[in-house]
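seq:
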Amino acid sequence: MNNIELVIFFQFFIGLFAAVNPLGIMPIFVSLTAHQDPVERNKTAYTASLAVAAILVVSLLAGQLLLDFFSISLDSFRVAGGLLLVSIAFTMMSGKLGEDKQNKQEQSESVSREQIGVVPLAMPLLAGPGAISSTIVYASRYPNSVDTLGLIGSICIFAAGIWGLLRLAPAIVKFLGQTGINVITRIMGLILAALGIEFIANGLRALFPGLG
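struct:
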């Protein structure tokens, strides 16, 4: 492995961080897991980082093939992700996200909590259209097996970094308190709504150039 390949992998790694901005996702993670105890939050962080690694590796190996097979463009994916974000945002702004249910539905609610690590954290917040499109582009540019292994290694390091950052969330929760979390939940809901609309607008502009 020469220096040029190392530079490529480093650029890919930095590009993922720029596209995902995991530091900016941390307040959203705090809001989404405010109803969880420390053990559950750590499990959610682990699930999210593992899901991110799996999504990006699959995108690297078969992303373009899957999109072509189903005739789905990245812009269509961006619109779908935006709709999902807007839906979650309305739930957050209404204060219903993470509402505990002390009845016979508690078990199904527990399953829903575990899924937070996959949707919306891993998809579309962390491994969203930007990260996936970047991964697919690098895969098409550097298709040989050595480069593919190097890119997979970069993804694994990236996912480990996300896991480490999300593990810091309990300290943030303790510092802010429940009132602060409630305020942040609604503010993050508003930001998520704006982000989702931005995703939708960008996707629609690309799908329908006449709208621009």
